[in-house]
Write a structure and sequence with these properties.
Layout lengths: L3 E4 L5 H9 L3 E4 L5 H7 L5 E4 L7 H5 L6 E4 L9 H6 L3 E4 L5 H16 L2 H9 L17 E5 L3 H10 L5 E5 L11 E3 L2 H7 L2 E4 L13 H5 L6 E4 L8 H9 L5 E4 L12 H11 L4 E3 L8 H14 L4
Parallel strand pairs: 1-2, 1-3, 3-4, 4-5, 6-7, 6-9, 7-8, 9-10, 10-11, 11-12
């Protein structure tokens, strides 16, 4: 009797083909609802998920045959890993698979903001040809603060290595990472000295609304602010207030507190629309880790960690 796998999100064909080659029975439902998954989870031996569904204790309590959960991508906040461990359910993720893509995307957001590429192009489309007001800030010589030096934070530091920048890195879980270019720093030091701040934090009870009004009030150099981690790490209303008060020079977000935009209340939408109207704001739809290469690598890593290949 073959083992059954439920796949709850779009995945690279390599993952599907590999499971088929290994003789697994696949229930491929990339749009399955929480309720529908609840109805069939008791038949699954394996589960593949992304960020779309919450795999909580209620659903895991019914997963009587489940042996493992494979998370495509990074971040396990939607999975009750403690409950899963108590049921001897193995949980793996693949944060290494899309870290390069996230690092490159963060750099793209930063360079577009610093060189006024996005805002200037918008003006050109409107028939405007404005040069003086679109003078760039060069990245060379700046101090970049990276908060969270895990997979994506390290990838961002790597793509910055070709620039003549000073990197201040803050990570409460890591030590011994200093190089000639990267120096360990406190949060306060980054808030004082950084010309650029980029967030690369997981979402935990410690990091929810990490970038809030108090965070922005402590900034000394009016930095560019980038976030490619989890939406709820940054408080949207606080970002709007910070850019309106000229506490930050520009903001690049790949993530929002609520995704997709359709989930916003009228009040939340008003805040988001006000932020998006600012000329030095760029928001992308959670695509930083979504490159073609990452799409494949994340699936391959999950298969490796599960011992499938």
């Amino acid at each position: 009797m073959s083992l059954k796998i439920i796949i709850t999100a779009p995945v690279h064909p390599f993952l599907l083909d590999t499971f088929k080659e290994k003789g697994y029975t696949i229930q491929y439902e990339p749009a399955i609802s929480y309720e529908a998954l609840m109805d069939c989870i008791d038949t699954a031996n394996g589960l593949i998920v992304t960020t779309r569904l919450k795999i909580d204790a209620t659903i895991l309590a019914k997963a009587n045959q489940l042996k493992w959960i494979g998370r495509i991508g990074s971040g396990m906040e939607l999975i009750d890993t403690e409950f899963a461990a108590n049921k001897n359910i193995l949980c793996v993720s693949s944060p290494e698979g899309n870290s390069t893509a996230v690092g490159e995307h963060a750099l793209g957001l930063l360079l577009s903001l610093m060189n006024r590429i996005h805002s200037a192009y918008t003006e050109v489309r409107e028939g405007k040809w404005i040069r003086d007001a679109n003078r760039a800030d060069e990245l060379t010589g700046k101090t970049v603060g990276i908060i969270g030096l895990g997979n994506t934070g390290s990838a961002f530091a790597k793509v910055l290595s070709g620039f003549d920048v000073n990197i201040l890195a803050h990570d409460i879980y890591k030590t011994g990472f200093e190089t000639t270019q990267i120096k360990a720093a406190s949060l306060e030091m980054i808030q004082e000295k950084a010309d650029v701040i980029s967030l690369h934090l997981p979402l935990t009870h410690l990091t929810h609304h990490y970038a809030n009004t108090a965070f922005f009030n402590r900034l000394q150099k009016k930095p560019y602010f980038i976030s490619t981690c989890r939406g709820s790490v940054t408080e949207t209303a606080a970002v709007l207030e910070a850019i309106q008060n000229q506490q930050i020079r520009g903001v690049g977000l790949d993530v929002l507190e609520k995704e997709p935009i359709s989930l916003h209340t009228d009040q939340e939408m008003a805040v988001l629309e006000a932020l998006m109207l600012h000329p030095n704001c760029i928001i992308t739809p959670h695509i930083a880790g979504y490159s073609h290469e990452a799409y494949y690598k994340m699936s391959k890593l999950v298969l490796e960690k599960l011992g499938i290949i």
